[in-house]
Design brief:
Length: 112
């Protein structure tokens, strides 16, 4: 699966603003690492990586970084798998288009 358009720009913007970047996926670490490699994404861009099964419970991430839910922005392409529980837990959320529409939208717009 190719990287989303604008991911490199988003990562650089986050780094410039000292925002920690965490990969949270329901894919295994092996599949995620292979996807990063195929997409030319350096895994070292991420401060951590979590494998969470849907619906994704953000409590482990909040605890690890000692942050409050309103300090976490969850970006996901599925309301049910990514966004719903994060909203219920008080996290900020941003729903992006699913992969079949990904080329029509630039993910770097998340921080605009």
């Amino acid at each position: 699966m190719p990287a989303r358009k604008g991911i490199d720009s988003l990562i650089e913007k986050c780094r410039g603003k000292k925002i920690k970047i965490v990969s949270i996926s329901d894919c295994s670490h092996i599949i995620l690492a292979q996807s990063f490699k195929e997409s030319n994404i350096d895994p070292s861009f991420f401060n951590a990586s979590y494998q969470l099964h849907a619906p994704k419970d953000m409590r482990d991430v909040l605890e690890a970084y000692k942050i409050k839910p309103n300090q976490l922005l969850v970006v996901g392409d599925s309301y049910e798998r990514d966004i719903d529980l994060a909203k219920q837990q008080g996290c900020k959320t941003f729903l992006v288009p699913e992969y079949q529409y990904a080329n029509e939208w630039d993910i770097s717009e998340v921080l605009e």
